[in-house]
């Protein structure tokens, strides 16, 4: 991913926090000579202190599952939020742009054992069911139904061999334009625009 230096984010706490908040990823590989992607939840886990990996699962009927034993490098793309930046908000310049955050992770895949897959699914359900009024746990699923579903999917873990970041948040704008962009994004009422505005404000306050 092309990223000018002033848009790069190298703080792991910031990057890992973003991955965890925006964990519905695009997993990409090369399948039969062409790019192939699947949208799926991918969770960042700390396997041991300081050692991180990504975990997820895919339907066996998905052709991409055939790539899991290929030894190739996979790409997981995490993105959102994003917002259009109108040039009418600038004092002088008249070229509009787009602000956004994206993280690209490159790594190798390993297929999970059934026990590891169950552990991964348990953590996934517990995380997203926590906000439910009536949370469902994996132990609530009838054994036969769970077994049938486990046979239909393949779990994987992915190493974090290379991470690329692009936190494009108007870092190159002067204080007047920067403040106006934040004002306009907040006024839009759009949740993604507001999230971009808050991230911009936090970084400018920190001198970034």
From TrEMBL:
Q: What Pfam families is this protein classified in?
A: FMN_bind_2 (PF04299)
Q: Which InterPro entries does the record cross-reference, listed alphabetically?
A: Split_barrel_FMN-bd (IPR012349), TR_PAI2-type (IPR007396)
Q: Which Gene3D superfamilies match?
A: Electron Transport, Fmn-binding Protein, Chain A
Provide the protein name.
FMN-binding negative transcriptional regulator
Q: Which organism is it from?
A: Chitinophaga pollutisoli
Superkingdom of the source species = Bacteria
